[in-house]
Every structure is written in C-alpha cells, then in structure tokens.
Amino acid sequence: MKKTKTASSVQLKLALGLLVILNGSCTNNSDDPAAVPYGSGVLVVNSGNFTDNNGTITYLPPSGATASYDIFNQVNQRSLTGGVQGYTEADGKGLILVDNTTARQDKVEIVDANTFKSLATLKSPEIENPRSAVRVSANKVYVSCWDVSGDYSNGTFYKDPGYIAVVDLTTNTVTKKIPAVKGVETLILAGSEVFAGSTGGVTQLSVIDITTDQLKSGIEIGANPNPVAVDANGKLWVYSAGELVRVNTQNKVVENRLKIGTDKSKSPSKFRLSADKQYFYFVGSYYDANYKEFGDLYRFSVNDTSVPTTTPFIKRLFSGLDIDTKTGIIYGGVTPSYKQAGYVLRYQSSGTLIDSVKAEIAPSAFYFK
Amino acid sequence: MRFRDGVFLSLLVGSFSVANGQTSGTDQTLPTVTIRGSTPERFSAGQKTQRIDSVTLEQFRFQNLTDVLTYTTPIAFKIYGTGQLATASFRGTSSNHTAVLWNGININQPTLGQTDFSTLPVAGFDQLAVQYGSSASCVGSDAVGGSILLMSNPKWKQPGFLISAGQKVASFRNYTTQVGAKFVSPAGKNSQIAGKTFFYTTDAHNDYPYRERGNYFVEQSITKQKGFIQDLYIRNRKNQQLSVNIWLTDNDLTVTPFDTTVRERTRSQSYRFLTTYETNKLTLRLGWIRDIIDYARGNFTNPSHSETDRLISRIEREFTIPVKTGRISLRVGGEWSHYRTRVDGYGDQPIQENRADLFALARLELSRWLFSANLRQAFVTRYDPPITPSVGAEYLIIKTAQSSLTAKGSIARSYRVPTLNERYWKVLGNPDIRPENGFNLEAGIAEQWRPNERFSLSTETTVFRNRIDDWSYWNPDYGYRVENLQLVVSRGLEWNGSLNYMTPRWQSGLTLGYALNRSSQERVYNVYAQDIIGKQLVYVPKHTGRFSAYVAHGKNRLTIQNQVNSRQYITFDNIQFLRGYLLTNVLLETEVKLGPVETRIQGQINNLFDTVYLNVKRNAMPGRHFSIQLICNLNTTKQ
Q1: What range(s) does the TonB-dependent receptor plug domain occupy (chain B) (predicted)?
Q2: Taking a C-beta distance cutoff of 8 angstroms, is the pair B278, B240 a contact?
Q3: Where in chain A is the domain with CATH 2.130.10.10?
C-alpha cells in the first residue's frame, strides 16, 4: 500500500476500500492544518541508489517531531521511480527532478508545495537528465538538462548541446528549450541573469538573460565551472578545478581566484554559504585504498586569502550539506551505503551537534520551506 | 499416454523411485533400459526434489526457464524487465547460490557465477527437476540454496520418428518458431540409436501499445533468441552408452532500441558440448563450454567483450555391494576442468586456472531406510575451497498398497567458489576473498495416498535452516568492492500438495504450494549495520504461493496457473519495497489430427487480471497479453 501501486482487480477493490476508510478517519480527526501538511519545515532530497530508481523526499516538520518518509508516494500512491536530482519551489509549486536509469523515463514532477499532490509531470522529450532548477521570475523556472546521455567510455556521454528547459508554471508545460553547453549543470540567479555551470568539459560559465530566455556571451573561468552562491558583497562564486573564482556579476570580470586546500588528494565539493553569507562551508573528501570515502567539513570566510584544509570544522563526511538561512543550523546528510537509510545530522552554527534524524537512501540536498 | 506422463503426480516423486527406476524388459535382446538418474538426486537422501512434469513443460515450451519455475516452484526471481536479466534466489539465498546443471554439468556463467534464466528456453532440454537445499557434496560449487537440473533423455522404449514444428504468435508482435526431429531406432540385437535435432528462434518485439501502466513506465526492449540442440545416443547389448549433447544458445537483448544514443545491447552466446560414455559402473564425461557476453551502449560496433572457455572432464566409478536387506552403492569420482577467460575488466591478459574435485558418494538402501553420506574436496588455482560433507536419511514410516509416508532429514555443508569477477575484476574484485561457508539442515515428511484408481493425494512438508558465513557481496559501503562480510541465515518452510481425480473421460488436478523464506543478515560489521541486522534480504519475498488446477476431457485441457509473491524489499534496512502481487495465466489446449499430423493448439492468456507489478528497475511489467501456439507432430512412434 505504501510504496508502489500494483493491484489485481481484487486487490484494487480492497485498496480502494481501505482508502475510503482512511480518508474517513482523516476527515474525522483533523482540521485545516492537514490541508497544508508540508507547508513549512525541511525537505530532504534522497537521491536513492541509481539503478534502483528509488530516490525519495523526506519531510522534517518544523517542530522537530518525527520525519515523514517518501512523502510523494504517501500522497500520490506511486513512487517517483528515479534518482531524485533536486527540488525547488516556485509560486506555491514544487518541482522534483527525477532521473531514471532508462533514457526517456526521466521527468519533473510538479506538485502542490503545501500538500505534495501531483499537479503535472513533465516527461521526455521535454525533460531528459534534469540536473538543476531555479526560479527566475513569477511562474517561471529554468531546469538544466543534459539531454540523452551516451556512452561514457566512448567520450560521447554529454550531448552537445545540452539545454535549459523553460517551465511555465501557469500551464505546467515546457515552453522553450534554450540550447546550452554540454553537461549543463548548476543554475544560479543573480539579478536578471542566470549563471549556468557545466560538467561536460567546457571552460566558460554560461549566462542567460531571463527576460529574453537567450544565451549571452559566457565568462571564461576554467575547467567545468559551476556557480556556487552570491555572497554578502553581491559577488558570484564559481567553483572550477580546485579553485573558487569570484566573479563580478555586473561587469563579468574575474576578481579573485582562491585555491581550496593544499592537499591534492582531497577533493572539495558541496560549497554552501552561511546564513549571513560571510562564510563558506564545504566538504573535503578522499578515497582510501579500499575505495572507502572519507572526509570532513571545512569553513572559511569570503574575505580569506587562503583556505587550508588542515583543521576540519566538523569531523564528519557528508553526502549532502546545506545551511538553514533562518536559523543558521547546519544540515549534513550521511550515507552509510546506497542500500540503507541515511541520516540527517543537525549542528549549531558553532559546529555543536544538535540531533540526528533518520532519512532515506543517500540524503544529498535540503530544501528549507 | 497422458497417464504415463504422470500429469501432476510426478511432482513429488523423490529420489526413492528414481533409484528403483528399473523398468521391466519386453521382447528385446538389448538389456533393460536403466534409468540411471542423475547423481545429485540419487545421493541426496533426505532432500526434497521436485520434478516438473512433462505436461507442464509442454505448456511452457515456448517460454523461458524463468516462466516455468515461477509458476511451479517457490524460487524467487529478480527480473530486470521483459526478456532482461533474470536471476534466481533459492530458499532466500543470492543469485550466486543456485547451481544450474545441464546433463550434470554446471552451466552457470563462471564470470558471474549465475545463470540468466531469461536466456534459457524450456525447449532446450527434455526434463527438468529442482533439488532443494545445499548439495555441494554431490554437485560442487554454487549448490547452496538449491540446484536446477536440466536433462536430455531419449525415450529408448518408444522407437520411432517424430518431426515436430511449433509456432507461437503472441501479443506485442512476439513470435517463436521451433522445428525439430527426434528418433529412436528399434532395439536391434546389438545396438540402439537415438537422437534429437532441434532449432528454435524467438523474435520478441515487445511492441506495447502503452508507454506506462499505472503511472509506471514500461521499458522498451527487443529480444532475439536462437538456439540449436543436437543429441545423439548409441547403446549396445552390454548396456554401454555413448552420447553427444550439443546446445548452442544465442540471446540478443536490446533495451531502449529506438534511441541510437542510449540503446543497450547485451548479447549472450553459449556453446555447450558434452560427450558421455556410460556403463552400469562407469561414467566418463568430456565437455567444452564457451560463454560469451558482449555489451555495448549506443554504438554497437565495439562492444565490451567477455569470453570464458571451460574444458571439463569427469570420471565416476560406481560399486554396488549387496547387504542383507538391501544394497550399498558407492560412487567415487574426480573432475578436472580448465578455465580460460578473457574479460575487458580483468586486464589485457587472459586468466587461466584449473579446478579439480574429488568426491565419494555413498548410498545405503534398506527395506525402509535410505541413507546417503557424501564427501567432496574441490581444488582451485590460487584458492582453497573447504571440504564438503553431507549426510541424509529417509525412513518409510508407512507403506501400504494405497499409501506411503516418508520422513526425511539431511545435514550438508556447502561452499561457493567465488566468481571470476569477484576475484579478478581489476578495480573492485578481491583476490583474497575467502570461501563462503554454508551449513544446511532440513527435515521433511512426504505422504502419498491413493485409495482407489480415481483419486490420489500427495503432500510434502519441509523445514530448513541454511546458515551461510563469510557471505561475500559487493559492498556498497566500499564503492561496491567485494568482501566476505556477512552472515546470512535463511530459514523457512515449504509445503506443497497435489490432488488428482480421474474418471475414464475426465481428468482433473490441483497443485498447491506455499513457501516461507525468512532470510536475514546477522552480523554487525560496522556502526550502521545495526539498521540491517535481522532484516529480510533484498528481493526475497517472505511468502510465496503457487496454485494451479486443470481439467481435461479427451485431448482438451483447461489449465489455470497462479503465483502470489509477498513484497520484495529493495533496501537492506527494508524501508523500501516492491509490492507483492498475484499473477494468473489461463491455458486452453486441444488437439486435432489431420492425417498423420497431430496438431496441438494452445491458447494462452497471461496476466489475466492485468495486474500492475514492477521489476527491480521499478518499471511496470506488461499487462494482460495473449498467445496462440501450434505444435504439429508427425509421429511414427509406437505408443
């Protein structure tokens, strides 16, 4: 009943009967709050184990009470059937980016952000390998898509060009595909422009004008640039090949290049800004000889001139990281393996552990409502 | 004729009747045909063996081994999609723990240590039996959860010539064609010859009229399957028999075929040759098997290639010692095989190794008792498998003209030689991996009751406990590197029953099966393992049920087949699962005779209730679909 919807006619009748009973009991003992069960709180994006197509979204209520698991399935009686690549909200709607093992089976589920009821599903060929989504204006969301991916070993993995799907939330449709660099990845909005990164081997950061939905000339950064955040000074930070690059979004000039760490064996990832936008947190990780991943959380100021990775801020490897901008609380996702539930560890901004909540498979991102 | 086929009665025939399977001679000069029975069955006293009857095999002759086993046994299959990889979990074990024997030779892919059951069509063999529980001492590696025995057997007692042609036309533009001939020469003074030549081809376009079912995608795939079988047998008056068995299979699967960027092609080809020389006392086998797997994505011209050759030789000598009220059979033997494998993931050099086995199997038959005691030691290059003993006993509690009641029990150690992938895969393989160490206990009681000519009832109940230590698995915690980490305990219960009622004009029967498989990981090996201790293993349904019934009148037969499976967990901590489901098939058959040609017509409805059920990729499997099968036989066999 919980995970997947399968039924013979007999089972269907039983299930329907049960639903009627459940619905009856719901309306009996709950008032208005039940209408917006996911109105506030934190959503945990569990990417799932890729070949199992079992990504989910966990809901953590603001009260800190018990988590609700796979809420899309709970509400809609069907699973998301893919890895969950990301989640964003815009104008009362939530967009879940779903990546299936099989081509032509990726999708973006559009749900009511308060109830998580499915409103529409954007499918192939509109959506193919969705990577990142950002709200750009009222009822308009960009979704970066790699398009169909080929064979990695033949060097044909990233289709050239990828594209950015323009989603109109009044009609819940894709109205345009903006051709983009291959392997188009993270999208960040700054002013009237979206900065788009890539994992496909390009060196320029793409720039898109959100009023015309047109690509503008890009900014030369370095290998596989991906935008990270806009800091307290209004500067855009872009990660590329071991460096955080500070970009002036007005004149598109690269102002500073900050080397991250000195230890080449540690690869930095998951850069997140603190609530006051003065500090960056990131994960520095490495694999040992047995392919076991180790790593820690590090922190530095946006005004620092060097970023040593000698003293961790939190001695813990996270598969997901974010900062609640309202409270400054650090959320870290822990993935014991891709075949069992992970945990969300919450820390004060000082680095003191608050609690640990069980999530689902591979907690990798957070959305603060 | 149908009666000889045993209908569903033969489901519960144990090793007892096989051992005593001497049939009385007629007016032939040649010695009586000896139904020697396969070694694993004869020497596994106390263990459950299930023979799939020939009527059922005939009904599934256009389908794959997966299909027939899911409707007749509690073996759970992990299915990736229509025509896609299907691996077995027998009694709650993993896909590496089921031995598949073709004429006594293990045909599991040595690289993967498992068989993709979707590549083996039912048409490829004459007889099918399933042996439950560990039988490593008789079979060798892989026989931890159980063994599946595929056999080719000539019908010496029915000389004649049979030409057979079959055609299946099914929903979604799926077609299968089979053509073949069988012959058995009359039993002459000095020798008798038998043979079979058979060719089959399947074109499964899986052209579904829908893209989704119940909001789940239905994955596109195309399968082309081809196969060729050549059997030849010669026996003489000294009852020496020389046989040659050849089975070539070619399975060509393309997933998402219409997208040239992402389509995935897996082509599995196997060449299997076996020569056997057999007398009453001696068996010599010489075989060669080549397994090829080619996998490509997008561009198919340069696939990733894996090729393994095995040269197998085996010698077995049997001694029979009469004792006061029975006899002792002692079978000793040795096996030597050479492996040569070339796999892209292993590096540039082919890997070669030798394997050898020594075994001694003993069987004591008394009037009411049957005992077996077996011992095997395997030797593998750069690897050290454990010595594997087993003992078993059966006791006939009641034996009357109408009924029998047998109690059984057995204890067996089992092992598994790690797969070539586990040892040699460059990145994630582990050359230091230890042998898995299994210990299987089981006990059962079997009953048969036949109060009169019309009515028969048989049941069998078995309980088992199989403990497998050093269970090796691709540890997701270490980037899927293979390790001996876990301790798995599988325990359960199997019950099946069969009821038949016959009148001179009508026949009817009912078979029921239920199995409980509680299989869990029991060792804490890291801090997060506590979340998975005691949890049901993934893809192993706790409860499975099988139910089939038939009614026949003359040459007409209506059969209904059902399988019920409880949920299959997909994560180690059981937080996610695929829901349980019920599947029903209906078959209607009749036979018409046009001159000398007998034509069997089968109409089949699969997934009658249009159940939405999911495979392990969480795609929906096909809904209700239909097929019509025609089998034309030109038969000169004297019956």
Answers
A1: 45-146
A2: yes
A3: 47-217
